[in-house]
Amino acid sequence: MSGRRAAFLGLGAIGAPMAAHLAKAGPLTVWNRTASRVAEFARAHGARVAATPREAAADADVVITCLPTSREVEALLDGPDGLLASLRRGTLFLDCTSGDPAASRRIAGQLAERGVAFADAPVSGGTNGAEAGTLAIMVGADEETFARARPVLALMGSRIEHVGPVGSGHALKAVNNALLAVNILAVGEGLAALVKAGVSARTALDVINVSSGRSFVSETLVPERVLTGAWPRTFRLALLEKDVGIARALLRETGVDGPLLDLAGELFGRARAALGESADHLEAIRLIESDSGVEIRG
Ligand code: NDP
User: What is the pTM of this model?
Assistant: First the structure.
């Protein structure tokens, strides 16, 4: 990062592999709520550990957050140990959380009063994409902030897209993930019915994946995670439910009726209640399996 000092806050499933790329590129300070995680990361990647968000931002030129929701990002700003206590004028603040557009506009306003530029920069591509440095990153910012953000984000992603003003990255990410959620449910329901009707799930997907119903869910996620019975936990179902909620709010705010997304939100809410906070997003299909008394395997 050519001398730029970066701070990364939130070493979760996707944050940690993203931060690892930054550590390779220049001096990095990391903070995480659970201290054991941050110590392990620092050992593995040669980063400096900050005891508080305030300490993390104290000498940073760029501060990056990757937390579950905008609520946690806002909470990190305030208080004697919060980011606002030490953020310096001229610092660049990039929020890679899949957050809420209205909250981002609030945060951007608060930061602008202190001369700190903000961009919402949520990512897509999963933990594999984060490890490979090939994430798609959708940025909401003014032109000048985007120009500053781009080289930093390019260390973590291969497609960095300026999609509009502050908040628009989060809006686009929420709609993208709402489409993912709808797809998961639709593929799960369709395959359950086909298996019951005597078509193997593998055969069904082989045909769907050269036909017009194919999607990332049918081509990659279900073959790799469901048919194999592997069910890896890389992206929490609770986070996908949160994203559908943000997309639903966007539809309401813009006056667009959203019965399909409303139903997807309700079904994911039910799945979260049944499967818990640590279940993976694809496990929504487990619920379809148990409701219909069938296993989707290949
Ligand atoms: P995880 O649940 O794996 O990690 C969440 C991170 O936030 C952890 O570092 C956790 O700290 C921290 N955290 C949680 N609550 C608080 C809190 N109250 N205060 C401070 N820190 C907190 O989430 P992911 O890394 O998977 O996701 C992060 C963001 O990226 C989310 O917005 C998600 O929607 C998005 N995303 C995730 C993808 C994925 O494939 N996983 C893909 C694309 C986007 P601790 O270690 O203490 O729990």
Answer: 0.97
Closest CA to 131 of 51, 72, 192, 45: 45
Give catalytic status of residue 24 as yes or no. no
Cβ-in-10-Å burial (0-12, 13-18, 19+) of 143 comes to exposed
Residues in contact with ligand 1 by the CB-under-6-Å rule are 10-15, 32-34, 37, 66-68, 72, 97-98, 123-124, 126-127, 234-236, 239
User: Tokens 């000498």 appear where?
Assistant: 59
Distance 199 CA to ligand 1 centre (A): 38
Ordered mean pLDDT values, 10 residues apiece, the chain (298 residues): 86 98 97 95 97 97 98 97 97 98 98 98 98 98 98 98 98 98 98 98 98 98 97 98 98 98 98 98 98 95
Mark out the alpha helices in the chain (DSSP H runs).
15-25, 35-45, 53-57, 70-77, 101-112, 126-132, 143-153, 168-196, 201-208, 216, 237-253, 259-275, 284-292
Residue nearest to atom 6 of ligand 1 (CA): 12
- Give me the pLDDT at residue 1, please: 56
